[in-house]
Design goal:
By secondary structure, the chain is an alpha/beta fold. The protein has 9 helices and 5 strands, in the order βαβααβαααβαβαα. The chain has helices spanning 16-30, 52-58, 67-76, 93-101, 103-107, 111-115, 129-147, 169-172, 179-191, and strands at 4-9, 34-39, 79-85, 118-125, 150-158. The longest helix is centred in the last third of the chain and has 19 residues, at 129-147.
C-alpha cells in the first residue's frame, strides 16, 4: 500500500514554497507515494477564538470552515510536510492560524495517533540561513513535536522575495546548491 503524504503550504502567494512542494510531489510520486498539497491561502480557516469552555469539554471546534476536512486528512496521512515563508523568524499568519486551530488535536489527546506519523518542516526566506532556521524550528519544536509528530527533518532554504514571475527562481537562482538532492533526501526520510 502506498504512503499518503499531506503537504501544507503557509505561503500567502504562489512562489517559492509552492514550487518546492510541487518538486517534492514529483519525487514522492516516483517513490510510489500519494501526495496532496493543501494551499492554505485557498482555504477558509478562521482564527482560533480561544473558546476553551467549548473545545476543552466537547473535544471539537465549533467553527464552521475548511479546518475539519484538513484535520481529517492529517489524521489519515502517513507523513506530513509543513512549509512556510519566514516572517520575522516565524511562520506566516496563515500557517499560524492553522497551527492554532490544530490545538484541538492536543486537547483531544491525539498525540498517540501522531507519534506514528513522520513530519518534515521547511522554511524559506531572504534572511541568512540561521534566521530562517529559527522559523523552521518554531514550527518543528513548538507545533510538530507538541502535537506528537516524529519530525524526521527540518530544512531551511534561502530565496528571493521578488520573483518577477519566475516561480522556479528558487531552483534556478543558484542560491541553494544541491537543492534537488536535498529535497530527495527529505522525501526519502518520509517514505522509508
Amino acid at each position: 500500500m502506498s504512503k499518503k503524504i499531506l503537504s501544507v503550504c503557509g505561503s500567502p502567494r504562489k512562489g517559492n514554497s509552492e514550487s518546492i512542494l510541487l518538486k517534492m510531489k514529483k519525487l514522492l510520486e516516483k517513490e510510489g507515494a500519494d501526495n496532496e498539497i493543501i494551499l492554505l491561502r485557498q482555504k477558509n480557516i478562521m482564527p482560533c477564538q480561544g473558546c476553551v469552555e467549548y473545545c476543552n469539554h466537547k473535544l471539537k471546534c465549533h467553527l464552521k470552515d475548511d479546518m475539519p476536512q484538513i484535520m481529517k486528512k492529517m489524521e489519515g496521512a502517513d507523513g506530513l510536510i509543513f512549509i512556510s515563508p519566514n516572517y520575522f523568524k516565524m511562520p506566516t499568519g496563515l500557517l499560524k492560524n492553522f497551527i492554532d486551530r490544530c490545538s484541538i488535536f492536543y486537547t483531544a489527546g491525539k498525540e498517540k495517533l501522531f507519534k506514528k506519523k513522520k513530519a518534515v518542516v521547511i522554511a524559506v526566506g531572504t534572511d541568512v540561513i540561521k534566521g530562517i532556521d529559527v522559523c523552521a524550528k518554531n514550527i518543528s519544536e513548538n507545533f510538530c513535536k507538541t502535537l506528537g509528530l516524529n519530525v524526521v527533518a527540518v530544512k531551511s532554504f534561502q530565496s528571493h522575495s521578488e520573483l518577477k514571475g519566475n516561480f522556479n527562481d528558487i531552483f534556478e537562482s543558484g542560491i541553494n546548491p544541491g537543492m534537488e538532492r536535498n529535497l530527495k533526501k527529505l522525501v526519502d526520510l518520509l517514505v522509508i
